[in-house]
Design goal:
Blueprint: E1 8-12, H1 16-27, E2 31-36, E3 47-51, H2 57-64, E4 69-72, H3 81-99, E5 102-107, H4 131-148, E6 153-158, E7 161-163, H5 177-182, E8 185-189, E9 195-196, E10 198-200, H6 201-213, E11 221-223, E12 230-231, H7 232-243, E13 248-252, H8 263-269, H9 285-291, H10 298-317
Parallel strand pairs: 1-2, 1-4, 2-3, 4-5, 5-6, 6-11, 7-10, 8-13
Antiparallel strand pairs: 9-12
Helix pairs in contact: 1-6, 2-3, 3-4
């Protein structure tokens, strides 16, 4: 194993993205620290768990101490994002400025705002008008400004909605797959005949790990590898083929509580509902050309996701 491969990579956030990334980094031979507010349970093999509140400057600094690369995959409850995420950013930026670690940030499509169906590339203007979209755009500008000023080495990896093993709180997650397997009601949002991009959680992890290993990508936004967009109806049909029965689909044309999405979440999500009333199409070809990493076919992602949910459903029955 090379000296570079033994450098410490610190992953902040133990949700689906952070946990999958930690496993990917360990698979690549890195020493990995996985950080969450409470010590994460069931950390992947070869990964050290660590408890820290990285919205605190003191705890953020302790969490990244000794790391060569830091990955910001922290998320918070949806209704707290505009309040808490700026504090997390400031603490994490200060920490990497102090230690000299490179910072890889997992980002969203929110800064683009409404696109009227325009294909989103890294050159798409940032036109967000929602509170959360404006907040994310401001955070991203601050990250890139810190890089331009030489205060930190930063790169951003943007993802579409997640799908894959371990992903629960996604429009293609816990409100769809368990219902497909048990005959319950499966959620669909907005116009189900519009194309909508999903990024496989394993491609999120591979993309972020690649950015962490290759500083040539620093100082800009990249779209993480994302399979070609399909309509929700097409994706549901693919799920139906795999489970051998039709979905009992419930289509919400406006936000309201359903399944794992309670009233608090849906009230906050209302300003983002445009994502389901216009096409959401992500082009990740720039990343694919630069780093030679192509997204997994959606078919393979659905197979792996259904396998994971079968185990989850079986466990719930026991």
């Amino acid at each position: 194993m090379s000296v570079a491969a033994r450098r410490l990579h610190a992953v902040l956030g133990a949700g689906p993205a952070g946990t999958t990334l930690a496993a990917e980094l360990a698979r690549r031979g890195h020493a990995v620290r996985l950080v969450s507010r409470s010590a994460p349970d069931g950390t992947p093999d070869g990964v050290q768990g660590c408890a820290a509140d990285v919205s605190s400057p003191v705890e953020a600094l302790a969490a990244v101490e000794g790391a060569d690369v830091v990955y910001h995959c922290v998320n918070v409850a949806y209704h707290l994002q505009t309040e808490v995420m700026p504090r997390v950013q400031q603490a994490v930026l200060d920490a990497v400025e102090t230690t000299g670690a490179r910072l890889v940030v997992l980002d969203t499509l929110y800064p683009y705002g409404q696109t009227q169906g325009e294909v989103m590339t890294e050159e798409t203007p940032w036109r967000a008008t929602s509170r959360k979209g404006v907040m994310r755009a401001q955070l991203d500008e601050a990250y890139l400004a810190a890089h331009r000023a030489g205060r930190a080495r930063v790169v951003l990896g943007r993802s579409a909605d997640f799908v894959g093993p371990g992903v629960l709180n996604s429009t293609l997650g816990g409100a769809v797959f368990p219902a497909a397997l048990t005959g319950g009601e499966a959620l669909a949002l907005g116009d189900i005949d519009l194309p909508h991009s999903y990024t496989a959680i394993q491609d999120v992890a591979k993309g972020l790990a690649t950015l962490g290993e290759d500083p040539a990508g620093d100082g800009r936004v990249w779209h993480l590898p994302t399979a070609p967009a399909r309509t929700t109806r097409e994706i549901h049909s693919m799920i139906e083929e795999r489970v051998g029965s039709p979905l009992r689909r419930v289509i919400l044309t406006e936000p309201r509580p359903f399944g794992p999405f309670d009233a608090t979440f849906m009230n906050e999500y209302a300003e983002m509902f445009y994502q389901h009333t216009e096409p959401q199409i992500v082009d990740s070809s720039a990343f694919e050309r630069a780093f030679g990493l192509r997204p997994a076919p959606l078919e393979a992602t659905l197979d792996a996701t259904l396998d994971w949910y079968r185990t989850l459903v079986a466990g719930a029955r026991n």
